[in-house]
Amino acid sequence: MINIALFGPPGAGKGTQSAYLVERFNLIYISTGEMLRREMAAGSKLGEQARDIIASGGLVSDEIIVQIIEKTITENPQAAGFLFDGFPRTFIQAYILDGLMMKLNTSLNCLINLKIPEEVSVSRLLERGKTSGRLDDNETVIRNRLREYHEKTLPVLQFYRDKGQQHDIDGTGSVEQVRADIVRILQQELDKNLFNLVLFGYPGAGRGSQGIALAEKFGLEYVATGRMLDEEIHSGSETGREIAALYENGELVTDEIVVRLIEKKIANANGVKGFVFKGFPRTLVQSYILDGLLRKHGSGVSMVIDVAVPLLEVVQRLDARSRTDRRMPYDSSTDRIVKRLREHENKTVPVIDNYRKQREVLTIDGTGTFDEVFGRLCHAVEDGIRTLR
Ligand code: AMP
Fold first, then answer.
1. Structure confidence at residue 389 (pLDDT)
2. Domain that holds residue 230
3. Residue 306: CB within 6 Å of ligand 1?
């Protein structure tokens, strides 16, 4: 998600720039001024309460503002992001915004301050007043709005400056120049977003080799629990010995162990652009755990792919592998192969179905050569990254 607030005095160009940004970055636009004007036009109670204040150039109460934006925010948990225009306008509203964003487990990325001198603001608004039909675009009210801006709204800047989340832009340039400056900042913010891919598929569908190749190509960290468990055993650590004992008894490794390992992996992965998860989550419980782990880093699952290979082909592939030195301990007999496939069907297929209920799960055809499948996967991931960024 990317959540941005456009800030600046009346007439700074927030509305003009927003129209483009909303379209280009697929954001939900929240302009409190526009929402209030809509309420007034509809003759609602809220609109009537706000009318006189707006007409005089004052600020509408924080209570009214919360009422008009809360619904839009909480009703759009799957949004790619929000663009706020004219909000937060008081430092109280900055706290309100924090609280509302928290409800969606997200936060404001940054505030972009369009700077223009007072006289530019006045002349732009007077010009706009000739056609806008807005009851507050006349000189007396404009001066009032600017006074309110200096007294109540400017402290908001300090709030975000203290958090290191404020960017200044010269708002006097052409629409295109200002737009380019804003886009650059948004792009930087988007580049900070992690791209997290969960790769599903039956054992033998090729997730392992494809996952490693995808991670390398897109600068992601490959997280395969099976491999991590093996590494831990070989490291001879305390946890490694615990895992080995569980393996010998034919038992599943506990979530406590797996989660600790993944947590460590995520925390130590500095500078990566995201993660490819393979073999995790394997159960519904683990899918909740993954959400929690990623949320801790202000992130979430970005894309879920199911690599589809017909069951008979999967059996054939696993059987063939069992006769090579790429053989895994668990493909050594038909009995074990079938057990593993059944385990996948019973435990992991419901996880995929659960993801399907919440979001799009891409099914990628996993038949054909490695390069053919890799090509299809790359295509999907590129699209996914483009949407995220
Ligand atoms: P705008 O379209 O952003 O220039 O807003 C027009 C008018 O709506 C302002 O002068 C205020 O009276 C009112 N308004 C808009 N947003 C807010 C807000 N966040 N808090 C208080 N009043 C607001």
1. 63
2. 195-388
3. no
Kindly give the distance from the C-alpha atom of residue 91 to the centroid of ligand 1, in angstroms, as a whole number. Answer: 14
Q: Closest Cα partner for 257 from 234, 290, 232?
A: 232
pLDDT of residue 248: 84
Domain count, the chain: 2
> Among 152, 167, 191, which residue terminates a domain?
191
Query: Ligand 1 in contact with 89 (CB < 6 A)?
Result: yes
Question: Omega before 350 cis (within 30°)?
Answer: no
Q: With a cut of 70, which residues of the chain have pLDDT below it?
A: 389
Whether 285 and 170 share a structural domain: no
221 Cβ inside 6 Å of ligand 1: no
C-alpha–C-alpha distance, residues 218 and 244, integer Å: 33
Instruction: Please indicate, yes or no, whether residues 165 and 229 belong to a single structural domain of this protein.
Output: no
> Is 12 in the same domain as 138?
yes
CA atoms within 13 A on the CB side of 203: 23
355 lines ligand 1 (CB under 6 A): no
Residue 17 burial (C-beta neighbours within 10 Å; 0-12, 13-18, 19+): buried
User: Residue 217's domain is classified under what CATH number?
Assistant: 3.40.50.300
The answer on 103 and 34 residing in a single domain is yes
Return the ∠ at Cα 325 (arms to 319 and 328), rounded to 5°: 60
Q: At what angle do helices 91-103 and 154-162 cross, to 10 degrees?
A: 50
Please work out whether the CB of residue 36 comes within 6 Å of at least one atom of ligand 1: yes
1 Cα to the center of ligand 1, angstroms: 25
Ligand 1 in reach of 86 Cβ (< 6 A): yes
Q: Which atom of ligand 1 is nearest to the CA of 53?
A: 12
Q: What is the distance of C-alpha 63 from the center of its chain?
A: 28
Would you say the CB of residue 145 lies under 6 angstroms from ligand 1? yes
Measured from the Cα of 54, ligand 1's closest atom is: 12
Q: pTM here?
A: 0.70
**What letter represents residue 68's amino acid?**
I
CB 302 within 8 A of CB 360: no
Q: Give the tens place of pLDDT for each residue, 245-280.
A: 988 887 778 999 999 999 999 988 888 999 999 999
Q: Whose CA is nearest to atom 11 of ligand 1?
A: 59
From 185, 171, 296, 271, select the one nearest 220 (Cα to Cα): 271
Of all atoms in ligand 1, which is nearest to the CA of residue 148?
A: 10
Q: Is the CB of 262 under 6 A from ligand 1?
A: no
